[in-house]
Write a structure and sequence with these properties.
Distance between the termini: 37 Å
Strand content: under 5%
Shape: flat
Number of strands: 0
Number of helices: 3
Largest sheet: none
Structural class: mainly alpha
Radius of gyration: 26 Å
Length: about 80
């Protein structure tokens, strides 16, 4: 509870395999990593979306619950 607090983080390497020791370079490497992982080209066929069956809208879910419904829900907790 008292004294020095030690913070430990996992080591991170650059693409060439060298170890990163500077915090700013570490952050930049994470940015580089996620841009490479998340910005992949996708060949998605949008026709697939039109083939998904559509359900009717459940408008009753927009209604405010009654006092009885709230009490019943509270009893079940």
């Amino acid at each position: 509870m008292y004294g020095l607090r030690e913070t430990i983080s996992a080591s991170l390497n650059l693409l060439d395999g060298s170890l990163i020791t500077d915090h700013k370079i570490t952050v930049a490497r994470w940015v580089e990593h996620f841009q490479a992982v998340l910005n992949q080209r996708s060949d998605f066929d949008s026709q697939v979306l039109s083939e998904i069956p559509q359900w009717t809208t459940a408008a009753h879910l927009d209604e405010i619950p009654t006092v009885e419904e709230i009490q019943c829900a509270l009893k079940q907790m």
